[in-house]
Design a protein that fits this description.
83 residues; alpha+beta; Glutathione S-transferase Yfyf (Class Pi), Chain A, domain 2; three-stranded antiparallel sheet; 3 helices; 46% helix; 17% strand; flat
Length: 83
Amino acid sequence: ASRPASIRYRSGVAVIEEEAAAGNCDVEIFEAALLDELSRRRDAELERGVCLVGPHRDDLELRLGDQVAKGFASHGESWSMAL
């Protein structure tokens, strides 16, 4: 049986995730949340010498039906989704 594939952008910033899950896609709220998180994590970033917040730390969630493909999909299904 075939399962529908879907993809979802997952932000590393909790407020953005919560707002998006609630259906709110206000760019100004997202911008403010990102700037707040950047400010909050600045000392840790400087201490570690790496960026801990930003789109480069976000992820794409691939799903087959109602299950997350990571750890669930077969090797062939994973390759097909990647292509």
